[in-house]
Write a structure and sequence with these properties.
Structural class: alpha/beta
Order of helices and strands: HEHEHHEHEEEEHEHHEHEEHEEEEHE
Radius of gyration: 21 Å
Helix content: 25-40%
CATH topology: Alkaline Phosphatase, subunit A
Number of domains: 1
Number of helices: 11
Distance between the termini: 37 Å
């Protein structure tokens, strides 16, 4: 059938070619600063319409480049998305489909979670390894969350400079940092706020490596729960809260502002070392915001998006994404192009002239989007596979988006839902019964994609009673 042939062409094209024709030619490879936040929602920044949280540095970054309104994480939870960034592969291909230590089940469900690998295998080639082979200095600061064994720690996955969050990763004033190995550990006992400490390390890496091309992966743990802000940032948000026409979490806003401070300091360091003009900066999140109570009051709201972290609806997978490159990317672009986190690795390969990449890469280069082409990339579908029960009440499900349409499949019931995201960003109107042909088309895309990756599916629950 025509649909089957189209998907086969798309899947083969992505797996074999991976990288599109380079959009830029340059004599000097750009520095890359990739800033990843943890559980930051689509509407948590002022530049995305948040009326309460102050993020002037991130807003300025958006004005200097491209703000994407339809960027995606490849999974609604943390570890799989991080793995996709490192490898350019879908979590389903890696069989790393849940967050590390994720093991929730539901006795009342007809299925058990799929079998999966709670780590990124050492045999996987990371973007850090590829850039290091290209002559880059590579730095990883913050949350790794891809497995704890020494062989798969960041210092053995291509990073020269590593400052990895160690013990008490959810405590912003009582934590440890592993410095290049498990044998060298820094402990903090209430002296330095974790977000600020990670920024310190990021600035140090930039200053140390200013003389050559570098790649900095700065993975903040904020604003993940537990919600612990700096006390000196709270008062203005308490005042806003008392005057606000809708509820918001002032503690969460203060945490986001600390991230914004860090982004400002990173940009200042790039300016001071005269390397900003040759630095590509990316700011994004690993999944959608947390929209229910978990380890405390609800942090944020993703409205008008449906649901939140742990769900394959838009609130769990659509994320803020800003890309800036002074002098190379025209400032002030707002793009509605869609792409996902598997696309970062092939994009970096495209920009740095790396031709030899694994032949099973799922992403494509999004360099053509740097010119403001909002339709580039929409000739291919995007996929999500989450065969687990999330801590945020998400159920085992998969999804595919192709153009304006998105299909969601429940792995428990087989129910299919179809949405037109252009007209229904809230995924409130299920079109599956009135658009049967489109529903069938996207369902075939999703099932053929899973088969092509040998994706692990949920197992029958022997204890289930109808």
């Amino acid at each position: 059938m025509k649909t089957d042939r189209l998907l086969t062409v798309i899947l083969i094209g992505q797996a074999v070619t991976g990288v599109t024709q380079p959009g830029y030619s340059q004599t000097e490879s750009p520095n890359i600063v990739f800033i990843l936040t943890d559980d930051m929602g689509w509407k948590d920044l002022a530049c995305y319409g948040n009326r309460f949280t102050e993020t002037p540095n991130i807003d300025a970054l958006a004005k200097s480049g491209i703000l994407f309104t339809q960027a995606y994480a490849s999974c609604p939870v943390s570890s799989p998305t991080r793995a996709s960034i490192m490898t350019g592969k879908y979590p389903a291909r890696l069989q790393l489909t849940n967050f590390i230590a994720g093991n929730r089940t539901d006795k009342s469900s007809p299925v058990l979670p799929a079998k999966w690998k709670p780590y990124l295998e050492a045999c996987e080639i990371t973007i850090a390894e590829m850039l290091k082979d290209k002559g880059y200095s590579t730095g990883m600061v913050g949350k790794w969350h891809l497995g704890g064994h020494d062989s798969i720690a960041p210092w053995n996955q291509g990073f020269d400079f590593t400052r990895m969050i160690g013990k008490n990763g959810l405590d912003y004033y009582n934590y440890s940092i592993y410095i290049d190995s498990y044998r060298n550990e820094f402990f903090d006992k209430g002296t330095e706020y974790l977000t600020d400490k990670l920024t310190d390390y990021g600035v140090k890496f930039i200053r140390k490596n200013k003389a050559k091309s570098f790649f900095l992966y700065l993975a903040y743990s904020a604003p993940h729960v537990v919600i612990v802000p700096r006390p000196d940032k709270l008062m203005k948000y308490f005042r806003k809260y008392s005057e606000a026409d809708q509820k918001f979490n002032p503690y969460y806003s203060a945490m986001v502002e600390s991230i914004d401070d860090g982004v400002g300091r990173i940009i200042d360091a790039l300016k001071e070392e005269s390397v900003l003009e040759n630095t590509l900066i990316i700011f994004t999140s690993d999944n959608g915001g947390l929209g229910l109570d978990e380890l405390g009051p609800t942090p944020t709201s993703n409205l008008p998006l449906r649901k939140w972290k742990g769900h394959v609806y838009e609130g769990g997978i659509r994320v803020p994404a800003i890309i800036s490159w002074p002098g190379k990317i025209k400032p002030g672009i707002i793009s509605d192009a869609y792409f996902t986190s598997v696309d970062y690795l092939p994009t970096f390969c495209d920009l740095t002239g790396i031709d030899e990449i694994p032949n099973d890469i799922d992403g494509i280069s999004i360099v053509p989007l740097f010119n403001g082409n909002s339709r580039e990339g929409e000739e291919r579908p995007l996929f999500w596979h989450y065969p687990h029960f999330s801590n945020q009440m998400g159920r085992p499900a998969g999804a595919v988006r192709f153009g304006d349409y998105k299909l969601v499949e429940s792995y428990e019931t087989g129910k299919l839902e179809l949405f037109n995201l252009k007209e229904d960003i809230s995924e409130s109107t299920d079109l599956s019964e009135i658009m049967e042909q489109k529903t069938l088309e996207l369902f075939r895309f999703l099932t053929m994609w899973r088969q092509s990756l040998n994706a692990q599916m949920p197992l029958p629950n022997p204890g289930y009673e109808r």
